[in-house]
């Protein structure tokens, strides 16, 4: 069809085909399953300080926020749970699970190339933690050790604490999410 020409059916109701397709889609669902109205929610409260240093289209933290899987924090807002940060003095472990379950888990979203620009001293957190040596699977830093994206960092901490179901929920939002688990078995 050329520019400016509209596709109209000759005689009859043009929306009829659309309603037939909707009816067929409903029939394709198994009888025991109803369409889900609500998306799955993480069992743990997740949060992120976003410093806007990375590409917004590739930012895994922002994507999780769009799915309402984590809450964005302001710089002056404190966080009472475990915070994954390069200024931590010890690695996250199973011992942190009670605090994560009660108060949550947060991550600092910044560029690895611009760490010196991040005001870590202003981020009020009770339990800053590091992650062990892991390999990134995200498309930006694939194969680089210790340069994880937000979703990789959160998922790694959750798995280390025994919350694998929530970690898989987060990684499932990304095409490459399964690769992170297989690279770091």
UniProtKB/TrEMBL annotation:
An example molecular function term from Gene Ontology annotations: S-adenosyl-L-methionine binding
Enzyme Commission (EC) number: 2.5.1.157
The reaction(s) this protein catalyses: an N(1)-methylpseudouridine in rRNA + S-adenosyl-L-methionine = N(1)-methyl-N(3)-[(3S)-3-amino-3-carboxypropyl]pseudouridine in rRNA + S-methyl-5'-thioadenosine + H(+)
Biased composition (Basic and acidic residues): 17-27
Pfam name, any one: Ribo_biogen_C
Taxonomy, superkingdom: Eukaryota
Annotated RNase L inhibitor RLI-like possible metal-binding domain residues: 45-75
UniProt key word rRNA processing: yes
Entry keyword set: Cytoplasm, Ribosome biogenesis, rRNA processing, S-adenosyl-L-methionine, Transferase
GO biological process, one term: enzyme-directed rRNA pseudouridine synthesis
Family: Belongs to the TDD superfamily. TSR3 family.
Protein's UniProt name: 18S rRNA aminocarboxypropyltransferase
Species of provenance: Arabidopsis suecica
Lineage per the UniProt record: Eukaryota, Viridiplantae, Streptophyta, Embryophyta, Tracheophyta
């Amino acid at each position: 069809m050329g520019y400016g020409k509209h596709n109209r059916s000759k005689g009859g109701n043009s929306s009829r085909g659309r309603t037939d397709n909707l009816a067929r889609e409903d029939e394709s669902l198994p009888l025991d399953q109803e369409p889900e109205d609500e998306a799955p929610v993480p069992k743990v409260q997740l949060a992120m300080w976003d410093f806007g240093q990375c590409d917004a289209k590739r930012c895994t933290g922002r994507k999780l926020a769009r799915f309402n899987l984590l809450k964005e924090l302001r710089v002056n807002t404190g966080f009472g749970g475990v915070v994954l940060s390069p200024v931590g003095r010890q690695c996250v472990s199973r011992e942190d699970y009670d605090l994560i379950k009660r108060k949550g888990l947060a991550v600092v979203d910044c560029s690895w190339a611009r760490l010196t620009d991040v005001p870590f001293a202003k981020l009020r957190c009770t339990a800053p933690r590091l992650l062990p040596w892991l390999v990134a699977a995200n498309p930006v830093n694939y194969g680089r050790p210790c340069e994880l994206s937000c979703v990789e960092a959160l998922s790694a901490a959750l798995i280390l604490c025994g919350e694998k179901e929530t970690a898989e929920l987060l990684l499932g939002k990304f095409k490459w999410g399964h690769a992170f688990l297989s690279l770091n078995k």
